[in-house]
């Protein structure tokens, strides 16, 4: 039987911050046609924080998602690279907890190390593309920075760039999202610390980006300073 990558990896992980894999059904030619992901009715991060619960604690949700990423990046016997991090791939359950989902682009780290990684992001990743040619833990961290930017400013990265070619050039040339395009509310110290973390996540060299645990620790430190949030005018 053919097992798509999201099933072969997803069924092996077990963590409170990973959407549980329950099962699948077989379609034509014995291929898997549908995965039963969860018995609950979760919303993704964007829908939850903008429609269902605009007053949600975004820092708590981000930290919960990072707990899931730490688990993947430290998975034994081989770390897992998620490969599809963006707000839509963070689910928020009926209980208000964040979970990582969607493992169609995930890879075990040994696959990356042995040169089997050919990473091309699909069009639906438009605002969350990375400059990386290969899928690595650092790719997840770059995308995590973009996701944090959306969560704490309320605006997609590169929201002002409409043409895909222009966006690819901008990201590929090492340009970073600008503070002025993504205002945040919070103390000066909290905002500065947030942007310092984001810039580290967006280093052009994947191996120079912080680990998932370091990002989580920094988020907790920023939260201790009072946190930051999207401007009320958003």
TrEMBL record:
Annotated Protein kinase domain residues: 1-220
GO MF annotation: an example: protein serine/threonine kinase activity
SMART domains referenced in this protein's UniProt entry, alphabetically: S_TKc
UniProt cross-references to PANTHER family, sorted A to Z: PROTEIN KINASE DOMAIN-CONTAINING PROTEIN, SERINE/THREONINE-PROTEIN KINASE TNNI3K-RELATED
Name of protein: Protein kinase domain-containing protein
Annotated organism of origin: Tulasnella calospora MUT 4182
């Amino acid at each position: 039987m053919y097992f798509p990558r999201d099933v072969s990896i997803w069924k092996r992980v077990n963590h409170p911050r990973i959407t549980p894999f329950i099962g699948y059904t077989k379609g034509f030619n014995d291929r898997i046609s549908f995965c039963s992901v969860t018995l609950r009715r979760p919303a993704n991060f964007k829908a939850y924080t903008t429609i269902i619960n605009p007053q949600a604690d975004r820092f708590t949700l981000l930290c919960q998602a990072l707990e899931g990423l730490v688990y993947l990046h430290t998975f034994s016997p081989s770390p897992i690279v998620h490969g599809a991090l963006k707000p839509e791939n963070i689910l928020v359950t009926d209980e208000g907890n964040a979970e990582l989902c969607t493992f169609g682009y995930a890879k075990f780290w040994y696959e990356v190390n042995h040169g089997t990684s050919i990473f091309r992001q699909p069009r639906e990743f438009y605002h969350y593309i990375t400059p990386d040619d290969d899928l690595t833990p650092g790719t997840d961290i770059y995308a995590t920075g973009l996701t944090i930017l959306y969560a704490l400013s309320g605006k997609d990265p590169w929201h002002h760039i409409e043409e895909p070619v222009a966006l690819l050039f901008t990201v590929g040339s090492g340009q970073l999202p600008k503070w002025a395009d993504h205002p945040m509310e919070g103390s000066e110290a909290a905002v500065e610390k947030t942007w310092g973390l984001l810039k580290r996540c967006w280093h052009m060299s994947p191996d120079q980006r912080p680990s998932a645990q370091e990002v989580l620790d920094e988020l907790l430190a920023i939260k201790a300073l009072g946190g930051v949030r999207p401007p009320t005018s958003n």
